[in-house]
């Protein structure tokens, strides 16, 4: 039945080219309508949905937001100066905050900074920004220095000053001021939300500050989203044109036929329009992960182009069709449509295996990749042959004949001689070849098991410094300047943040119970290995530290603590509600609110961890520490959430690979059976690609490339791409075996002809996909490198390993011409 279906449809493109081309043009117009509906999504928040700690992280950020956290409701003003506590620097911060406050479109509701604290120290009655600016302007430098000397010792001020602050000299090289905006509901979860309403607000704030604010830069979640969106667009603008140009150059060298090259590019353009139109109609946004899709399209499209043109030339040159372009193309599609269907279906199974991932963006990647692969099969299986027939018909009408060229890898060519190595190995020592490959695969697989799995926002971020070569590109290829990575790194290096080298214990329950604070203190003794210790206890920031700090300043509060401390260890045991209330009524109210909610039912404990410890080790120890608390406690924080996502990425990669392997093997086995072939050919198809997949994983470890949100898809994608190469060899071999008595002769013709097309395909595919390696984020760069490696390994397996496997299969099963002519007969019926 399957063979009859292909027999009915294979000649449609060559025999009715005009209706086919018109139909495709109409469908292209329908898909193009969806392109204006496309949106760009740049956030990382959807990746963290798989983390059990993500909800707790969001609650912590919402209830205990630090004054300079880059949350969804505030903008940071990062100031650098020789001394940000000097009078000129303080005035610069105050005036900048005032300029932002007076802009109605920025919806400013509050501001905070060390400059405001110094102004209040100078004049306690100065409560507004204009009054505080006036207070600092009127004060002498000595008075400002004296006021700043008091403020710099305040824990609240210290959190806004860089870690190089000197309390004695009253100096600091950087500070952070904040501006809070009224922009409605916002997200407090981990990752970066693509839907933050702060993007426009913070971009306008950045424009205001850049005009007048010396030494001050704007940072916040809106800026992050803006730059992550920009890097998606810039990466597309950079990689797509370069891919096209390089592939066109290689196609020209291979074919030296401008008409064929233009037809190939037009076909690829249709594939892109259909793909992006489908995304627009389906409401799937463009993300960094989906930037890789056009490169994958390019790879499969060029593969189909080489095989179509190469075999079309064979039929015209060797089979006597000459200027009979319809007959030549009909013979070509009769042989290739099945091969295209096999390669496309197995590619779709490989890409589509990512749909089983529990990570939303990876699922969408699988959906779009399957759609793209299906579109590529339809376009190059029907539109391209129809277009080629029309072009050659037109040429024949004008010139009286159609130019003929030798196919790639023809007998006597240097490429043909090089490709004969695979045939010779298959003829002389197939078992030895396969044994060496098996041992090498086991060794490489054992080595590759040590590959690292990671997830960080930096994977999605543009570089701090754009390479000079990219900066010299003409517009619109040249990327813009980015500040995200530089400012993010600056904050981590110069400020005490809650996300760097710390984890958070989120404690639930009634914290007024007599044992509550004792329990918190007891847990910190003898902590796990990755937890930083101080006096043999975990180094933590919690409500206990705030109690001790206020007790050191207030005699009455210290007396209250002592009266309720039963064992004299400095930790109150009784009347905790009264102690909390006194604390919240004190100048330490804001500090206390970062560790204890006003209803005393939730506490936040920040635990310092070793900076050189692995994410997995820290997350494991954090969960062990959380289990020690009597009250229900959740370990959370960026490190824990990222570890959860990394585990999900590894699980997704292995699951997708397993699904792709099972589906591809089952599909090929059933298909060959339906076509009258030996079902074992399905296994022969898949086995060599397992070798290339293992080689890719081993290369990842050798190159220091981790499994991340995008590179995790390479296992299933590599299997899907690689089967394309092997399927062409297997299909051509069975066709040649139908016509020749000798297995060796069939192998020689297969490798020479299919190997020639595969060589051209691998050159253009690695070039086109390799351009993704020039993308502006580490994740895309790594994906481009790995995909190019995967294609190269698949090619080598196709021309070196597959012939040996086919030769061994043919001899082991006793396959002969009489065994295989059944398929020819069924196709002729």
- The CATH topology of the largest domain comes to Multidrug efflux transporter AcrB transmembrane fold
Total individual domains: 3
| Most strands sheet | 4 strands, antiparallel
Number of strands: 10
The name of the CATH superfamily of the largest domain reads: Multidrug efflux transporter AcrB transmembrane domain
Q: Return Rg in Å.
A: 33 Å
How much is the average pLDDT?
Answer: 81
The largest sheet has its strands arranged as 2-3-1-4
Characterise the protein shown here.
With 829 residues, this protein is mainly alpha-helical. The protein folds into three domains: 2-43 and 226-460 and 643-828, Multidrug efflux transporter AcrB transmembrane fold (Up-down Bundle); 74-182, no CATH class; 500-636, no CATH class. It is built from 31 helices and ten strands. The strands form three sheets. The protein has a four-stranded antiparallel β-sheet, with helices on both faces. A four-stranded antiparallel β-sheet has the order 8-9-5-10, with helices on both faces. Strands 6-7 form a two-stranded antiparallel sheet. Strand 6 (533-534) and strand 7 form a beta hairpin. The radius of gyration is 33 Å and the shape is elongated. The chain starts with a helix and ends with a helix. 53% of the residues are buried. The model is unreliable at 67-72 and 817-829 (pLDDT under 50).
